Amino acid sequence: MRLSRFALLPIAALALGACAEDDAVSVNDRPPLGGVRFINAVSDAGPLDIRMVDQVQWSASSVTTTSGIGLPFRAGTIHWPTEAKARQIRVFPNDSILANTTTVLHDTTITIERDRNVTLMLVGTRAANNLRFVVINDNPPTLTGNQIATRLLNASMAGQVPAGADGYIVASTATVPSGTPNWANLPPLTASPYVVRDTGTFAVRTAAAGTTTFWSGAAPAGAPRDGLIGATAGFRAGGSAMTAYLFPRACPSVTPPLTAANCPAAAGQSAAVIAGYQAPGVSFFIDLIPAAPIAAGS
Description:
The structure is a single chain. By secondary structure, the chain is mainly beta. 6% of the residues lie in helices and 31% in strands. It has helices at 11-18, 98-101, 271-276; strands at 33-40, 48-52, 80-83, 86-93, 106-111, 117-123, 132-137, 147-154, 165-170, 183-186, 190-191, 195-198, 203-208, 215-218, 241-247, 281-288. The longest helix is centred in the first third of the chain and has 8 residues, at 11-18.
């Protein structure tokens, strides 16, 4: 067997050849980026696929690490690094039947700003065919030391319960709120200002404005920085910011109890999830992850 003469060339020489001017490898510069998170607040639909369809690279989608069946009601993604410019976005039903999964439920263009994180919350109802995105700026205040920030977002639409929401920061979901709400009569599809507080366990309890039937959610714990191991966002990690989303109950026009048969949002969901769909509910999403540590000499 005769070896090719190219096999005898030193690796360095091959590397130089690969970098020759005529055959140079070009690398595209990273474009200006913003962060885009999708949240599904459509109460009467099954899991949905949300895609930026104008290009493949630097495009947000509804893909998550925890859901392989589209983005269900009350679920959300991370903030995806997304090229900042006008972006075309389409929404599809998630289905194994091609004719269904290629049905466009919503088609729109939204301009993404450079160096800004936003949530695109999908609202409306499948029955009324009026899906649309609400753009929410995820811009927490500057935090120092052990400070964290939290806010409330009323993800119900006009005509859904709660039309106006009171929100309380309390020690736990079992704590009975008292006194003035931290956020009073928050309108539908509206985010409150952030409240800055020190690290420590807390929950958010909510109710229709002026009432005492509460829907609650415990804040995520997270973990503080440990040496060169970065912090996990939550109430234990200074520099974290989060939003408590108050969602309406699934299929508000359907008489409870909700089942997979009478509520499309419940189809394919676990018994525990369906139980939570019977009433409004609170879910937390992370808006700001504490800055990563910098190794000495970096």
